[in-house]
Amino acid sequence: MVGTTAMLSDPRFPRDPSEAGPDGTGTGERHQRWRRLVGQALTAKQATALRSRIVGIGHALVDAMEAGPIPADLWAGFAYPFPVRVVGALLGVPESDWDRFAY
Fold first, then answer.
1. How far is Cα 80 from Cα 75, in angstroms, rounded to an integer?
2. CB atoms within 10 A of CB 57
3. What is the C-alpha separation between 61 and 85, in angstroms, rounded?
4. In terms of Cα–Cα distance, which of 5, 88, 6, 19 is closest to 53?
5. Which residues contact 50 (CB under 8 A, 6 or more apart)?
6. Whole-angstrom distance, CA of residue 8 vs CA of residue 43
7. pLDDT tens digits for 45-86?
8. 72-94 in b/e burial notation, b at 16+ Cβ within 10 A?
9. What are the pLDDT digits (tens) for 12-53?
10. Dihedrals φ, ψ of 29, to 5°?
11. φ, ψ for residue 20 (rounded to 5)?
12. For residue 1, is pLDDT > 50?
């Protein structure tokens, strides 16, 4: 039985289900190529270095929700945009492209 942490760090398990084989492991060359490219930027060291920026992203989203309609939409206002913006920051995507980067 593979633990969740081990599975998430195991390159045999793709993040895109369309690239999974019948046993659930990654079979796609495309998956491995993306994992190698993106994996260099998505490290704990990088996240730690950007901690204050990540906190700022979270605060900005919460501030926008507080200024918006009541009740706030937690999914649209925070849960969806937060990881997209954090990954954008980690990868060096300009803030002006973060919304476009989500797609």
1. 6
2. 21
3. 10
4. 88
5. 89, 90
6. 13
7. 877 888 999 999 999 999 999 998 889 899 999 999 998 998
8. eeeeebbeebbebbbbbbbeeee
9. 666 666 655 555 555 567 767 777 777 777 778 877 888 999
10. -65, -35
11. -85, 145
12. no
| DSSP secondary structure, the chain, as one string | ---HHHHHH-TTS-SSGGGB-TTSSB--HHHHHHHHHHHTTS-HHHHHHTHHHHHHHHHHHHHHHHHS-SS--HIIIIITHHHHHHHHHHHT--GGGHHHHT-
State how far the Cα of 9 lies from the Cα of 58, in Å rounded to an integer. Answer: 25
CB 47 within 8 A of CB 87: no
The structure tokens 């300009």 sit at: 94
